[in-house]
Amino acid sequence: MRRYGKNPDEDDVRVRPNRKGNRPRTNIRPKHEDAAGGFVLTVDRGRLTCLVEDRTVVAMKARELGRKGVVVGDRVAVVGDLSGAKDTLARIVRVEERSSVLRRTADDDDPYERVVVANADQLAIVTALADPEPRPRLIDRCLVAAFDAGLEPLLVLTKSDLASPDKLLESYGALGVRYVVTSREELADGGAADRVRAELEGRITAFVGHSGVGKTTLVNALVPDRQRATGHVNAVTGRGRHTTTSALALPLPAGSGWVIDTPGVRSFGLNHIDPSRVIHAFPDLEPGTEGCPRACSHDEPDCALDAWVADGHADPQRLYSLRRLLSTRERREGD
Hints:
This protein is an alpha/beta fold. 19% of the residues lie in helices and 22% in strands.
């Protein structure tokens, strides 16, 4: 049944008056061309602390962003009160295109991706050489996530006064991953912080690691004017306690880069990882995949990489390392 007849015109259409006296809703969103650029420093219960020019501004997501997530490291457009004064609140109206996204899932069966940080260009994987013991499977998983996200990995090994780093470094030698070894004494006198800081110059670096490895202690040494709470290792379980509960971006002294401290992780799920992208982190092996069968996992009898390496085009240890990383989803992190 036609509401307005067969050939209605504009005079036939009744417009219900707006009893609130405000403008009717529209799907046309403002462009906010005058919005200021901001950098998200931390997120806490729906409130986002952003750096806008030289001011720290607290903001919330605008309704027009819908379910789009905003995370630490995001470049955003902000409107409203940008004074940074106490009890003021601005609005984030746009999230700029991300250059990189570091993701993880709770485990390998979890389909829900969690964005750890955005726009980082380096991932510092912090692990203790003892107290607690190193977890190579967790390191492997972090490396896979870094390669998938296009981040350059950096191994930071702490507590070298308790155990030698040689065995662990030997297992990652073929990957060519940069590393820094530190001890508790060196952290206390500042020498270790200087060496680590040299690897962070001009970069946005996300720090990840399981609890108790000294990650936040290291961050405190790197940025001494912004101290975060630190914890200890449980003598019974050998595991650390989560003391960092939210990611936080901190500027290095003299504005030479950024450190993003993230909460300690117990697991690093890779359900979101496409194994075919990991090969891109191995430019010396990638040409050898041209002869691989379709959808090759690079760890099967018909893989062309075996012949490629046997012909002397690449180091066999590099192929072993690639396959070890690709198999991390099939192994538990404690193995």
